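1st attempt posting a full record on here, be nice pls
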Amino acid sequence: MVLFPGGTVPLRIFESRYLDMVSKCLREDAGFGVCLIKTGSEAGQPAEPVSIGTYARIINWQKNPDGLLGITIEGQQRFQLRTTRIQADNLIYGEIDWIEHESPVAVPAKFQLLQDLISRHLGQYGYPEADGLNDAIWLGYRIAELMPCNLKEKQQLLELTDPVARLDCYLKWFNQSEMQVKTDPQTSR
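the predicted structure (as tokens):
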């Protein structure tokens, strides 16, 4: 999973190590790091994470109908892992350096298409209608959450430090997608 600052994700917790972690986070009013898995898998033995991740806070929790614990997390701030160690419970702990928050940047006019696309779909995803549409950082992270791209591509977007460059990536992608739709004989009938 790739979590972006300001983004929310519902999770189902069932492994005892994660139940313990969530309990500790709630008890100590703390968060935890979310990093994409570089090698390995989510369940069982610990995986190797990528070096850039996002600090998450638990903003809601409940018992799901299936009896499992459900939590909703919100991305706060990006970080870079310096070192990692595996605890006895197979949770990965790390020392991090915070990545400075990007300074707010107004969305340049050439990205109006992106603002319009996101504006039409915000309500479906629980975001206030106009909140952040004029902030290139916020807009870029929300588009990344909604784009149908793979996790490696989402990770690359998380790692970008220039919010306008992030928007440029989306505009290129949309233009290429539009071109493919127009030139694909299956869609032009």
